[in-house]
Every structure is written in structure tokens, then in C-alpha cells.
Specification:
The protein is mainly β and about 850 residues long. It has seven domains: about 120 residues, Cadherins (Immunoglobulin-like); about 100 residues, Immunoglobulin-like (Sandwich); about 90 residues, Immunoglobulin-like; about 90 residues, Sandwich (Immunoglobulin-like); about 110 residues, Cadherins (Immunoglobulin-like); about 90 residues, Sandwich (Immunoglobulin-like), CATH 2.60.40.60; about 120 residues, Cadherins (Immunoglobulin-like, Sandwich), CATH 2.60.40.60. Helix content is about 10%, strand content about 40%. It contains five helices and 57 strands. The strands form 16 sheets. It has a five-stranded mixed sheet with strand order 1-3-9-8-5, with no helix packed on it. Strand 6 and strand 7 form a beta hairpin. The radius of gyration is 57 Å and the shape is flat. The two termini are about 85 Å apart. The N terminus and C terminus are likely disordered. The structure holds 2-acetamido-2-deoxy-beta-D-glucopyranose (NAG) (9 copies). The site of one 2-acetamido-2-deoxy-beta-D-glucopyranose has 6 residues, from loops. The site of one 2-acetamido-2-deoxy-beta-D-glucopyranose has 3 residues, from loops. Keywords: Calcium, Cell adhesion, Cell membrane, Glycoprotein, Membrane, Repeat, Signal, Transmembrane, Transmembrane helix.
């Protein structure tokens, strides 16, 4: 027992001493440090022994807090009651001894007592209840309320490491709507909460905090959560007046993200040439300049809110801005001067013309409702108000008097056009010129009533003039009475011809408007009428002198044959037998000549066309993997005139047939593993084949006698070859893998994976790399070669020796050499 105590003293005497319960020890006076757990019952800590016999009493000074003392006579340092870590973490004390007369004999020595925390405090929330507010559609994971608890224990120990959790959600939901960060106490909504929380439905959470000690304390608190409405909603459509005089930029609407930490942006829906809108940091939307309805009457764009890290906070809101029309466009005259013609003999009430101005403002509104009024008539001969202008329709009519071209041949009317815009109507003054023209009392007369025959080739170019015709009119020049309109009345039902007229001379040019075709119509008997735009006066009528005729004969030309389709294409399986008919090409000669077919560009010699029938056959085996889209040109030429020929492209698409066996995608030569094999190693191999039907996965298998390896398919193309055990010798293995492409029909092939098991260097590389060991001779082989060479030399020497011997013997004895020969050589050469 005393030996044990001595051991304790020895091992602890110089070191820090942990006093757990009843462990005690002692030693001579010196500076000492102790660590003592708080909360312990009173206990002896350490017995100090004086070095001098004269030391009689021990004295303890310093931060004893009334619980640490030293027994004055035997030097025992002890606690009288529990230490409290929360009150004092370190006690700094000194110890000394006094001699009999009360004079300090030894010391003072310093004593440090470190108090060790034990988990004696439960965590405490800093509020008795927490309140949080969160909006509908709030971003999941973004904290909106935080609970906070403290623990008086040592923060460096698990005793004060707190973890939060939600004990209960009231009312409950599955999945939960709220979550808490177990370290920070931040409460946020879950994804479901973000979607499903609705205003008016509030929640309470019971949140628990626990420390992390083995026997942990915990505490709970109530968190009351109010759900508020989502304010991220699109504002109603905005209407703004165009050409606004308000100061710009002008706020037109606003959007608000549910929390203030969003970055707002506007995005255009359509690419407007000008986008005069902006959004500021708080979500107010501005228009930067006055808008013009006539440029664009509606703008639709999106407002988006992004979080600081650039993620979209929610879906974008659609902003609709309508631009309200204001009457900012005056009416516009149709021309600088609008010219009408009127014949001098026309009666009162006849229409001179329709006058129509325009206005760019909103159609159908008062801003574009135009009102016409004649302001002035120049000259006022024979008097004012010769014309009347309908206020709304703009119809100009003769109102009073007939006209006399000798008196006035031109009137100028100043017309006021006003829109009915409110509050201000806009006005424009326009000018109408009315030309009074001579009466149309002459009909156009053709110079010839018959222009004869004209013959043209059917391939004559369009717009070619076929005939020039001329009629004349004796009425006032440059008026509607003398202007001539030519019309083909007969002989051209398909409008193959048009007539263009020269304004000044009234000369008509008959031109080809559509391609002529001898085979459809060989003769066009044209009957042409000449008329005036102005009506004829009563008593005068068009007669035969206003009609002319001529005949166009279409001349046949030898045209090229043509194909009945502009492009031919066919799809066949690549494995069709040689000689399969794949298509029939049809070509027609307009003149009915027979056709001869031939091919051009059949670079692979795959096809043949029947010269007479146009039937196309295969001439060889096709191969999609060589060319999947084969193009050749078919030539069709006339039999009698082979120079007349046409060509067309023939496209042949080859459909895949499983005709390629699978193979390895690359070489696995050089695969090695270090000997000894410690764990099952594996090689991933990849199969491929050029067929297009690569939708079915390859099937990988091993030969039945393969016991060393197993194979497992990874995906459609890859498989993993794994060792079945680890007893591999140091040599080259050749693994036979069977790959089946599972196509239709299935094709299978055997491939070989060379794997070398070798002894390795420290870098895990083969000592002699497997590649080299196959190419260069090994030591064994080298020896073999050496011995082989020696053997050959030996044979030669032996042969020479024997032959000399033989000669010698021959000299003496001619027979018996053959038997000796073989008998001598055998042992040497083996
Ligand atoms: C105690 O120590 C003091 C100072 O060293 C000395 O004067 C005194 O005699 C001592 N008392 C005894 C009883 O030795
Ligand atoms: C509780 O602690 C948090 C975090 O330190 C603090 O923001 C909050 O004001 C505290 N509450 C009270 C009532 O002290
Ligand atoms: C706190 O949460 C994290 C992440 O959710 C988790 O890995 C960890 O285990 C949790 N800690 C405690 C004490 O629950
Ligand atoms: C709730 O969340 C789960 C995944 O946690 C999801 O599958 C489910 O669709 C969500 N329900 C609603 C209504 O958003
Ligand atoms: C805008 O209004 C002013 C008068 O207020 C006008 O002079 C101007 O032409 C208008 N601009 C457009 C583009 O309509
Ligand atoms: C035009 O051709 C027709 C028919 O061939 C013929 O009868 C007529 O005489 C020809 N006219 C003239 C002017 O050559
Ligand atoms: C047609 O009328 C004009 C006068 O208007 C006359 O000169 C001409 O002879 C007439 N022609 C025929 C064919 O009647
Ligand atoms: C062209 O001729 C072939 C063979 O006579 C026929 O099958 C095909 O329908 C024809 N194509 C057209 C567009 O008429
Ligand atoms: C098949 O698996 C291999 C190996 O794991 C991989 O490299 C390859 O990308 C995979 N192929 C496909 C189509 O998933």
C-alpha cells in the first residue's frame, strides 16, 4: 500500500495535478498549479511539506473566495465547498510558512487553481417569446427571425455549444413550412412554406435549444409567426398621355419585393428600338421622356427582382404601359396640290373627285375625325361657290353653273381640313386644282385596223415587244379626253400579253407577259380596243375605228426534255441485293421525241439506269457506313438530238442494317497490374461499331472456361472486367471477351484484352514495362539464343571435324561413314 502511494507521488510530483474526487498527493513547498472541477464537494487537494524544520505554520493568501484554505499545521491545501467556474475561472493564491515567532520562514510560493467547467447551466433564451413576420412567397432559406440563447458554461466546451431545433410547428404540416439553422438560430421558410403560406394564417413554433454535453440541458421558447401578404405583384396597366409636359423622368408605377434587399431590373419583352423606362433601387418605375403614341401605343416589359448573389428572387412581373393619344398630329394633305379634271360640259351635281386628307392620331377617335371646308375659290368666275365639298366625305361636286373652258380653264380651291380633337382641334390648309378640260367629243382612231401576222418563237423572252400600235385622239392634249387606254378584248384569255402606253404619244407596246407555249396555244388572235378615261359626250360613241387586230403565231422550238419531278429521292436498306430496282425516273420531251437516260457522278459504281425506261437498279452491294447519302445525276436526252438534254439530282438514302460486328473502341495493349495482386483490380473496356442502330446496348460475356475474371456491363457501351480472385501469377494474361451488338440480326465478335501482371517499381510501374517485355528478349530468351548459337557453331565444328575424319577413313576404309555421322552429331546438337 505504501509502495503504491510512493509511486503516485513520484509520477505527479513535478506535474500538474488533476484532482478528481479523492486523489491526493504531497510534495515540498514550491510554485504549483492545480485544475479542479467546479461543483465538487469539499476535498483535500495537496499536502505541502516544509523544507525547514523551523517552519511551523502554513499561511494561504489571495483569491480564496472563502472556499480554499490550507490547514496551518500539516500543510493540506483543500476546498471547503464547491468552486464555481461561472464566478471565477482561475484562483491566484500564495502559500508561505512562518517560524515559531511568526516570521516568514519559506515562500511565498504561487499557487494557481484553474476551475474546470462542468455542465451545470441550462441554455437560456434572451427573450421569453419571439415574434416574426414573413410574407407569402418569401424566399426559402432567407431568415426572417432569429432566436438567441446563451449558456453560462465554458464556451470552449460542449457544455455551452448550443444547437437549435424546431420541436413543433402549430398548426403542423407535412412537409414543414419552417426550418431553423441549428447553429445561428435563424428561422426561415422551406420551399413548401414559400409556396403554401397564406396571409391570415399564423403559426407558432416551439423552438428548442440544447447544449452538446453528454448529459445535455435544453430549453424551449415560443416563436409566433405572422404571415403577411406578398407584395410582389404586378401593378395594374398604366396609361400615360403621350407628349406629356410633366417633368421627366416621371414615376409611373412601382413594384416592391417582399424584403428590401433586392436588385430590381427591367427587361424588354420585345426589342423596342427605344426603351424609355427605368427602375430605381426601391422599385419605382420611371418613364424617362415624353412618349409618342404614333411611334408606339403600348409597351410591355418585365420587372424582375434579383437577390444580391444574382439569383432571381421570384418570377418576373409584367408591366403594361399604354400610351394615350392626344391630338398632336394635324391633318395632312394628300399632296401639295391635288389635281382634278372636269369636262366643260358636265352637268350640275356631277362628281369632280374625292378629296381625302389623313391624320396620324389614333384611328377612330375624334383626333382623326376630319372635317373639310372650302375657304376660297380662285377665280370667283362666273361666281363664288362653283364647287361644293362634302364636309365629311370630301366629295367635290359641281354645284352651280356649267363650266366654260374658254373663260376659266383652272380653278384653285383652298380647303381647310380640321380634326375634331379635344380640347384643341388642329387645322391644315390644302390646295385643290380643278382643270376644266375640253369635252371628249373625239374617239381614238387606230392608224390601222389590222396589223397583220407576227410569228415569234415560243422561247422568246418575257417583256419582248411583239407589236407597236398607235391610235390618235383629237381632243385637248394632255387631258383625260385625249389620253388613250388600250385593252385586249379578245384572243388572250390567259393574259399572256400586256400593253404599255407612252403618255405623251399614246403609242402602245404589246409585250409578252407570260411564257408562250407552242404545245398549248399556237395562235393568239388579239382584238384591241382604244378608249379615253373621260366619258364621251352624248351623241358620240366608240366605233370600229377604235378597234384593231393582229395575230401572234407561236413558233415551235425544239425544247429540252423535262423530268416529271424536280428532285428524286429514295431510301433503301443498305443490304438490298445487287440488281434491286429502286426507282423509275420519268422524263418527257415536249416535242414527243423518245428519251435516253444515263447517269453521271456514280462515283462508287453502285447504280445503273435503264437507258429506255428510266428504271434505276443497284449494280453493287451498298454500304451505309461508306456513304449514307449517295447523290448521282440523271441525264435525259432526246434520241434524235442528244444535245437537247436535261439533268436532275437523284438522292439515295441508305438505311442502316446491322452489318458490322462490334469491336473494341481502342487498344488495351499495355494494361498491367502489380504483382502480388492485393485487391481485385479491374479494367473498363469500351465497345463500338459503325452501324447506326446503336440504341441497343452491347452484351459482354467471357468464355465459359474463364475462371480468373468476371465482366459486368456499366452502360450501353462500357463494361468492367474485374479479377475474380487475387492469386495471379507474374505473367501476361490474354482475356477473351465476347461482345454482342444485340442488333437485328445480332452480330458477335471475340476480342482480346491483354493484361500483364508484373513486378513493380516503387512508383507502381512495371519494372520492365509490359510493352517492352513483349518486344525485347528477356534474360531467359537471351540465354536460349546464346545456347542456340553455340549449338550451331558446335554442329559446324563437328561437321568439319567429321568430314576430315571421314576423309582420313575414306583413305583407309570406304564404308560405314553414314552411321557414324548421325551418331556423332546427335549429342552435340541437342
Ligand atoms: C524566527 O526567525 C527570525 C528571523 O530569522 C529570528 O529572529 C527568530 O529568532 C526566529 N524564531 C525562532 C523561535 O527561531
Ligand atoms: C437577443 O439576442 C439577439 C442577438 O444577440 C439580439 O439581437 C436581441 O436584441 C436580443 N434580445 C433581447 C431582448 O435582448
Ligand atoms: C446542424 O445542421 C447541419 C446541417 O443541416 C447538420 O450537418 C448538423 O449535424 C446539425 N447539427 C446538429 C447538432 O444537429
Ligand atoms: C413540398 O415539397 C416537396 C419536396 O420537399 C415537393 O415534392 C412538393 O411538391 C412540395 N409541395 C408543394 C405543394 O409545393
Ligand atoms: C408635343 O406637344 C407640343 C405642344 O405641347 C407640340 O409642339 C409637339 O409637336 C408635340 N410633339 C409630338 C411629338 O407630338
Ligand atoms: C395571216 O395569217 C393567216 C393564216 O395563216 C392568213 O390567212 C392571212 O392571210 C395572213 N395575213 C397577212 C396579212 O399576212
Ligand atoms: C367612226 O366615227 C368617226 C367619227 O366619229 C368617223 O370619222 C369614222 O368614219 C367612223 N368609223 C367607222 C368605221 O364607222
Ligand atoms: C413521275 O412519274 C412516276 C412514274 O411514272 C410517277 O410514279 C410519279 O408519280 C410521277 N410524279 C409526278 C409528280 O407526277
Ligand atoms: C459509360 O460508362 C463509362 C465508364 O463509367 C463512361 O466513361 C461513359 O461516359 C459512359 N457512357 C455513357 C453513354 O453513359
Amino acid at each position: 500500500m505504501s509502495r503504491l502511494k510512493a509511486l503516485f507521488v513520484l509520477s505527479f510530483i513535478q506535474t500538474m495535478i488533476l484532482v478528481h474526487g479523492q486523489l491526493q498527493s504531497k510534495g515540498y513547498l514550491e510554485d504549483k498549479e492545480f485544475t479542479i472541477q467546479e461543483e465538487g464537494r469539499s476535498s483535500l487537494i495537496y499536502q505541502f511539506l516544509p523544507r525547514k524544520l523551523t517552519s511551523k505554520t502554513f499561511i494561504l493568501d489571495g483569491e480564496t473566495d472563502g472556499v480554499i484554505e490550507v490547514l496551518p499545521h500539516d500543510g493540506w491545501l483543500q476546498t471547503k465547498g464547491p468552486l464555481d467556474w461561472e464566478k471565477r475561472k482561475v484562483h491566484k493564491l500564495t502559500i508561505r510558512t512562518l517560524n515559531e515567532t511568526g516570521i516568514t520562514e519559506e515562500g511565498p510560493f504561487s499557487i494557481t487553481i484553474i476551475v474546470e467547467d462542468i455542465n451545470d447551466n441550462r441554455p437560456v433564451f434572451n427573450q421569453s417569446e419571439y415574434k416574426g413576420e414573413v410574407r407569402e412567397k418569401y424566399r426559402p432559406g432567407r431568415p426572417f427571425v432569429r432566436v438567441y440563447a446563451t449558456d453560462a458554461d465554458d464556451p470552449s466546451t460542449p457544455n455551452a455549444q448550443l444547437s437549435y431545433s424546431i420541436l413543433q410547428q402549430i398548426p403542423d404540416s407535412n412537409p414543414k413550412y419552417f426550418q431553423i439553422n441549428n447553429i445561428t438560430g435563424d428561422i426561415s421558410v422551406t420551399w413548401n412554406g414559400s409556396q403554401l403560406l397564406t396571409v391570415g394564417k399564423d403559426y407558432n413554433l416551439i423552438v428548442q435549444v440544447s447544449d452538446s454535453a453528454e448529459h445535455h440541458f435544453s430549453n424551449t421558447v415560443m416563436v409566433k409567426i405572422t404571415i403577411k401578404e406578398n407584395i410582389w405583384v404586378a401593378p395594374p396597366p398604366i396609361t400615360i398621355n403621350e407628349n406629356s409636359t410633366e417633368p421627366h423622368p416621371m414615376k409611373i408605377t412601382q413594384v416592391r419585393w417582399n424584403d428590401d434587399e433586392a436588385l430590381y431590373e427591367l427587361h424588354q419583352r420585345d426589342r423596342y428600338p427605344r426603351f424609355p423606362f427605368s427602375i430605381d433601387a426601391i422599385g419605382d418605375i420611371y418613364v424617362s421622356e415624353p412618349l409618342d403614341r404614333e411611334e408606339r401605343s403600348q409597351y410591355i416589359f418585365y420587372a424582375i427582382a434579383k437577390s444580391r448573389n444574382g439569383l432571381f428572387a421570384s418570377s418576373p412581373l409584367t408591366i403594361e404601359v399604354n400610351v394615350e393619344d392626344i391630338n398632336d398630329n394635324p391633318p395632312v394633305c394628300p399632296a401639295l396640290i391635288t389635281i382634278f379634271e372636269v369636262q366643260e360640259n358636265e352637268g350640275i351635281g356631277s362628281t369632280v373627285g374625292e378629296f381625302q386628307a389623313s391624320d396620324a392620331d389614333e384611328e377612330g377617335s375624334f383626333n382623326t375625325l376630319l372635317v373639310y371646308r372650302i375657304l376660297e375659290q380662285i377665280p370667283t368666275i362666273p361666281f363664288n361657290n362653283v364647287f361644293s365639298l362634302n364636309e365629311f366625305t370630301g366629295q367635290l361636286q359641281l354645284q352651280r353653273s356649267t363650266l366654260n373652258v374658254e373663260e376659266v380653264d383652272e380653278y384653285i380651291l383652298k380647303v381647310e381640313v380640321s380634326d375634331s380633337g379635344r380640347p384643341t382641334s388642329l387645322k391644315t390648309i390644302c390646295t385643290i386644282q380643278v382643270n376644266v378640260i375640253d369635252i371628249n367629243d373625239n374617239i381614238p382612231i387606230f392608224e390601222k385596223s389590222e396589223y397583220g401576222n407576227v410569228t415569234i418563237k415560243e422561247d422568246t423572252q418575257l417583256q419582248t415587244v411583239v407589236m407597236e400600235i398607235q391610235a390618235t385622239d383629237d381632243d385637248q392634249p394632255n387631258t383625260g379626253s385625249s389620253l388613250i387606254i388600250y385593252e385586249i378584248k379578245e384572243g388572250d384569255p390567259h393574259k399572256m400579253f400586256i400593253i404599255e402606253t407612252e403618255r405623251e404619244t399614246n403609242r402602245g407596246y404589246v409585250k409578252i407577259a407570260k411564257p408562250l407555249d407552242f404545245e398549248t396555244m399556237q395562235e393568239h388572235r388579239l382584238v384591241i380596243h382604244a378608249t379615253n378615261p373621260e366619258p364621251l359626250v352624248a351623241g358620240v360613241a366608240y366605233n370600229d375605228s377604235s378597234i384593231t387586230r393582229f395575230t401572234v403565231f407561236v413558233m415551235d422550238v425544239d425544247e429540252k426534255p423535262y423530268f416529271n419531278e424536280t428532285l428524286y429521292q429514295k431510301q433503301v436498306k443498305e443490304d438490298v441485293p445487287v440488281g434491286t430496282k429502286i426507282a423509275t425516273i420519268t422524263a418527257i420531251d415536249p416535242e414527243g421525241d423518245s428519251i435516253r437516260f444515263s447517269l453521271q457522278g456514280d462515283t462508287r459504281n453502285w447504280l445503273r439506269i435503264d437507258e429506255y425506261t428510266g428504271e434505276m437498279f443497284t449494280k453493287a452491294l451498298l454500304d451505309r457506313e461508306t456513304e449514307s447519302h449517295y447523290r448521282v445525276t440523271v441525264i435525259a436526252s432526246e434520241k434524235t438530238n442528244p444535245r437537247m438534254s436535261a439533268s436532275v439530282l437523284f438522292n439515295l438514302f441508305l438505311e442502316d442494317v446491322n452489318d458490322n460486328p462490334p469491336r473494341l473502341a481502342k487498344s488495351y495493349f499495355g494494361t498491367y497490374f502489380c504483382h502480388p495482386v492485393t485487391k481485385p483490380e479491374s479494367v473498363v473496356i469500351e465497345a463500338t461499331d459503325p452501324d447506326a442502330q446503336r440504341l441497343t446496348p452491347f452484351k459482354f460475356s467471357l468464355t465459359p472456361d474463364e475462371k480468373d475474371w468476371v465482366i459486368v456491363r456499366l452502360n450501353r457501351t462500357h463494361a468492367k472486367l474485374t479479377m475474380a480472385h487475387s492469386q495471379f501469377e507474374m505473367k501476361n494474361y490474354d482475356i477473351t471477351v465476347i461482345i454482342n451488338d444485340q442488333g437485328i440480326p445480332p452480330l458477335e465478335s471475340e476480342v482480346h484484352i491483354p493484361v500483364s501482371i508484373c513486378s513493380c517499381t516503387s512508383k507502381n510501374e512495371c519494372e520492365a514495362s509490359p510493352v517492352e517485355s513483349l518486344g525485347l528478349p528477356s534474360i531467359g530468351m537471351a540465354l536460349g539464343i546464346l545456347f542456340g548459337t553455340l549449338a550451331v557453331i558446335g554442329v559446324i565444328i563437328a561437321a568439319v571435324f567429321i568430314s576430315i575424319n571421314h576423309k582420313k577413313k575414306k583413305e583407309g576404309k570406304a564404308d560405314g561413314a553414314d552411321a557414324m555421322n548421325t551418331g556423332e552429331i546427335r549429342p552435340l546438337s541437342s
